[in-house]
Amino acid sequence: MSAIYLGLMSGTSMDGIDAALVDFSQSSRPQLLDYISVPYSQQLLDELHQLNLPVNNELERALIAGRKVGRAFAAAANQLLQQNKLTSDLVVAIGSHGQTIRHQPGGDNGFSLQIGCAHTIACESKIDVVADFRNTDIALGGQGAPLVPAFHQAVFADQKLNRAVVNIGGIANISYLPANNPDGVQGFDTGPGNTLMDAWCLLHTGQPYDKDGKLAAQGKCNQLLLQALMQHPYLAKIAPKSTGRDEFHLDWLQQLLVSYAAISVADVQATLLQFTAHSIAADLVRLDVDEVYICGGGAYNSSLMAALQQQMQTKLVTTTADLGINPDAVEAMAFAWLAFAYDNNLTGNVPAVTGASGNAILGAKYKAPR
């Protein structure tokens, strides 16, 4: 019987749909069979960016965009299957994160909204889909995020060394994996990953991201602006905590920049890079970490990796490639794992991480037509 699952993920950076094909037949560790990243069309990307802030008629626009995202996710899944000469009947299920457009988990009526119609994915891929992973945890009083620490523990934990896995997508999050102590796992969003850098770069260069940190390398960090950025109230919150574009966005940055009229574009980019590095390192140094492994798009920004290494001094800072997993594939693998966990009645959340009142099997299943 097949034990192959497919994970689909698009993070807050919206730089593409990550699709991972994962084999769970070996109980010791899931095996990544293949991975692809497929960009959104420019038209759909523009629609999604608009939906991250309040817009007119946003309910209808979100539902229409959700169908489009569903089709794009299904196309990515089908492309990955074709690339590996696999038919849909060999995949047990797809774990689909969807595309986050709102994440407001606090209060009595907290919620997290990921669009990407699971019915559409199931119909167009002919594979059962497990989706909507966050809201059960939120209903239990949790943040609904981060959801990957349980997967990171299963795949990356070490018997002797305390490790941290840091995903740097649009938002950055940490999974702290103490040696030989699964009950001690911690995880939370640290704050911005690439989202502010990407937005600033797109605004001033027309490029969707600062490739290898080249624009930032042309500038110099403005210490006064960095101090102002580090005063964002989210950074002072105690975990469990999670955040998103709702809090860290271009409008917020531009309001701050009113007091820094003379600062150059490159200096702002250099400062934003240091903001990401400082906010991540500020949380890492509070933990007893021996090694730091980076995944997500930030793993390919050599300027950011150097800044993190400088902040962490003698601690090892490298990427999950050194542990045998492509940094781009980690998050998509995690959602394949969450679909596997759903099917096998395994806990998908870590209450100590999310703040939920108890363990939960996460997600809901959408059956493919037979």
Automatic annotation (TrEMBL):
InterPro entries, sorted: Anhydro_N_Ac-Mur_kinase, ATPase_NBD
Keywords from the UniProt entry: ATP-binding, Carbohydrate metabolism, Kinase, Nucleotide-binding, Transferase
Biological process per Gene Ontology, one example term: amino sugar metabolic process
EC number(s) on file: 2.7.1.170
Pfam short name (any one): AnmK
GO molecular function: ATP binding; kinase activity; phosphotransferase activity, alcohol group as acceptor
Binding residues for ATP: G11, T12, S13, M14, D15, G16, I17, D18
Superkingdom of the organism of origin: Bacteria
Pathway listed: Amino-sugar metabolism; 1,6-anhydro-N-acetylmuramate degradation; Cell wall biogenesis; peptidoglycan recycling
Root EC class: transferase
Reaction catalysed by this enzyme: 1,6-anhydro-N-acetyl-beta-muramate + ATP + H2O = N-acetyl-D-muramate 6-phosphate + ADP + H(+)
Protein function: Catalyzes the specific phosphorylation of 1,6-anhydro-N-acetylmuramic acid (anhMurNAc) with the simultaneous cleavage of the 1,6-anhydro ring, generating MurNAc-6-P. Is required for the utilization of anhMurNAc either imported from the medium or derived from its own cell wall murein, and thus plays a role in cell wall recycling.
NCBIfam families for the chain: PRK09585.1-3
Family per record: Belongs to the anhydro-N-acetylmuramic acid kinase family.
Record-given protein name: Anhydro-N-acetylmuramic acid kinase
Name of the coding gene: anmK
